[in-house]
Every structure is written in C-alpha cells, then in structure tokens.
Design goal:
The protein is mostly helical. The chain is 88% helix and 0% strand.
C-alpha cells in the first residue's frame, strides 16, 4: 500500500468519525429541536391555534424523547446485524 493510499484511508476515517460525532452531538440535537419548535410555532400561529407557543413543545418533546432511547436501540440493532453478517 502506498503512502498516498494510506493517507486517503486515514482522511476518510477522520471524515467518518467526524460525521458519526456530529450525528450523536448535543449541538445537532439542539439545532433540530430549535428548528422544530420554530416551525411548529409558525404553523400553529398561522392556523390560529390558541397557545401556539405551548403546543409547539409537543413535537420537540417527542423528538427529545426519541433521542433518549435510540442509542440503546442502535447498539442492540448493530449487534444483531453484525451477528447475522458473521453467520453468512
């Protein structure tokens, strides 16, 4: 393997690790929650829902709760996926 190939593989690994870190980061989750809240506020306000600012919390809370259980579920899924691939 040449030095160029090795450098390309190492650079790719860095990008993959950074992408994975972004996917699980609190910054990403917070941005999604903020965008969701602002979007829900706008929609609820436009259609005339009373207390639109409070109602917009519901989808944000749903997203937040879904992020709490997913790491555990992801690990379980990955173990099963790897086990199935190793059996082939």
């Amino acid at each position: 393997m040449s030095q160029e190939q090795l450098a390309a593989i190492l650079a790719r690994n860095e990008r993959v690790e950074a992408d994975k870190a972004w996917e699980t980061s609190y910054t990403r989750r917070g941005c999604i929650m903020l965008i969701t809240y602002l979007s829900a506020c706008t929609i609820l306000w436009v259609i005339g829902v009373p207390n639109w600012y409070a109602g917009a919390v519901v989808p944000v809370a749903g997203f937040w709760l879904s992020t709490l259980g997913l790491p555990w579920l992801q690990q379980r899924w990955m173990r099963r996926y790897i086990d199935k691939r190793n059996k082939k």
